[in-house]
Design brief:
It is globular, with a radius of gyration of 17 Å. The chain starts with a helix and ends with a helix. By secondary structure, it is mainly alpha-helical. The chain has 11 helices and no strands. The longest helix is centred in the first third of the chain and has 18 residues.
C-alpha cells in the first residue's frame, strides 16, 4: 500500500504505511524485508527533500544488510546514500558510495543496478558542471535500460539528458529529450516525473 501512495507522490500516506510495515518486520525478525522497507522510507524522505532523515534510514538499512550478507541490498543502499550525500553537496562522499555500489552490482552482474548507478554518477558530474562526463554516464544508463525495455527507468534519464543539453546551450536537443520524457511519463502515469519534464520544458 505504501508503494501505491509513493508512486502517486502521496508521501505522507506512503510513510504511514511503510512505518506500519516496519513494526511488523521488526516484530517477526524479517531482517531483509525490514532493510528493504527502510530503504523505501529513506527514498520517500529523499523525494520530500528531508535528506537528514533519509540518510539515517539508508544507513540503518545497510547495517542490516551487512549482517545478513545481502550484497544486492548493500549495493542498493550504497547508491541511495551516495545520492543523499550529493544533495548535501558532499561530492567526495557521493562518488565514494556510488563507486561502492557500482563495484557490488558489477560483481552481481546486475544490469538494472549498474544502470541506476551510471545515472547517479551522471547526476554528480552534472552538479559539478562536468557536463561531458554527465552525458556519458546518462547515455550509458539509457542504453542499458533501453536494451531491457525498462521504460519507467528511462523517464528520469531522458529528463537528465535534456537538462544537460540545456546547460550546454544545446536547446534544440534539450527540447527533444524533455518532450520524450514528458510523453513517457504521461503514458506510464508518473506524475512526479511528468512534473519534472514540464519544469525542464519551461526553462
Amino acid at each position: 500500500i505504501g508503494e501505491l501512495f509513493y508512486y502517486q507522490a502521496a508521501y505522507s500516506q506512503a510513510l504511514d504505511n511503510y512505518y506500519k510495515a516496519n513494526n511488523i518486520f521488526r516484530k517477526h525478525h524479517y531482517n531483509d524485508e525490514l532493510a528493504g522497507n527502510l530503504n523505501k522510507i529513506g527514498e520517500t524522505y529523499y523525494y520530500n527533500r528531508q535528506y537528514g532523515i533519509a540518510l539515517k534510514s539508508f544507513q540503518e538499512a545497510i547495517r542490516i544488510y551487512e549482517k545478513t550478507n545481502n550484497r544486492s541490498g548493500m549495493a542498493t543502499s550504497y547508491g541511495f546514500i551516495g545520492q543523499t550525500y550529493e544533495k548535501n553537496n558532499d561530492d567526495k562522499q557521493a562518488f565514494h558510495f556510488q563507486n561502492l555500489a557500482l563495484a557490488e552490482f558489477r560483481k552481481l552482474e546486475d544490469q538494472t543496478g549498474i544502470a541506476k548507478i551510471y545515472e547517479n554518477l551522471g547526476s554528480v558530474y552534472e552538479d559539478k558542471l562536468q557536463l561531458d562526463s554527465a552525458l556519458r554516464y546518462f547515455n550509458l544508463a539509457l542504453d542499458l535500460n533501453s536494451s531491457r525495455d525498462d521504460r519507467m527507468s528511462q523517464i528520469e534519464i531522458l529528463n537528465n539528458i535534456g537538462d544537460v543539453f540545456r546547460k550546454s546551450g544545446r536547446f534544440d536537443e534539450s527540447l527533444v529529450y524533455s518532450k520524450k520524457a514528458e510523453k513517457l511519463a504521461v503514458e506510464l502515469n508518473e506524475p512526479y516525473q511528468q512534473a519534472s519534464a514540464c519544469r525542464d520544458l519551461s526553462k
